[in-house]
Amino acid sequence: MSLSLSTVILPVRRWHEGGRDQWVRAETLGFHTAYTYDHLSWRSFRDGPWFGAVPTLTAAAGATERMRLGTLVTSPNFRHPVTLAKDLISLDDVSGGRITLGIGAGGNGFDATALGQEPWSPRERADRFAEFVPLLDQLLTEGAVSSQGTFYSAEEARNIPGCVQRPRLPFAVAATGPRGLRLAARHGQAWVTAGDPKIFEDGTPEQSLEALRRQIGGLETAFAEIGRDFEPMEKVLLTGFTPERSTMLESVDAFVDFAGRHRDLGFTELVIHAPIADSDFAADEAIFEKIAVEALAQLDG
Fold this sequence. Notes:
Elements: E1 4-8, H1 15-29, E2 33-36, H2 53-63, E3 68-74, H3 81-95, E4 99-103, H4 110-113, H5 122-141, E5 144-147, E6 154-158, E7 171-174, H6 178-187, E8 190-193, H7 205-226, E9 234-238, H8 252-265, E10 269-273, H9 285-300
Parallel strand pairs: 1-2, 1-10, 2-3, 3-4, 4-7, 7-8, 8-9, 9-10
Antiparallel strand pairs: 5-6
């Protein structure tokens, strides 16, 4: 099974003070996709610079030529399907059809309350996500859409000429529970997981692998329920929240070992965070670049 390697570039640098260079360098290093978080701010970065995902990806599309670009992940916390669809069609056009939408139900935190709303319960987030994804799918594949939902509606929403990618740009659906996995099976071209948050702090690599195995099993069940072929589905692991997050970027060998175990589990794409000093994603830049250039060849060797 082939494996691709991608990266996440957090939008914390001014474009002309290293931001642009980071995206160009990611393409030079050969990453399959460079993603960014679609948040209003994030955890330990809340009191520092943080730029918008859509303008950042638009600029990145103009600065690169081949590498795919995307979000990990966009959520309903502060997005509406109608306006998001217009942004995505524009992004796909500017990039020449290189955009992947990572999309998830969202969580608690700043994004969940920045618009003045009360935090949604896990049940309400799941309910909203279940309505958000199908409507966004419809908006990106039809020229005009009218729809009345419990949470999201559209009235003669026009999205002409549509995406460069047909029938629309791909969705990478982040999900771990049964409802989300069913959405991924029905609407996704890829599935995304960051592992099991219950073992993020104190879990072992073995426990993480077992949790991921269960998640993949749940996804396969969701595919079987709708009669869709499971194998073509891309399976993406965002690696920065696994028990090995502090060790897998210490050397090429350490990453190759990590990558091999997860490829054997069925993952087709691994995503590593570009290093940011003095943060949860601190790592040696030289080793990070060496991993980007050498790891997959060593894994296949």
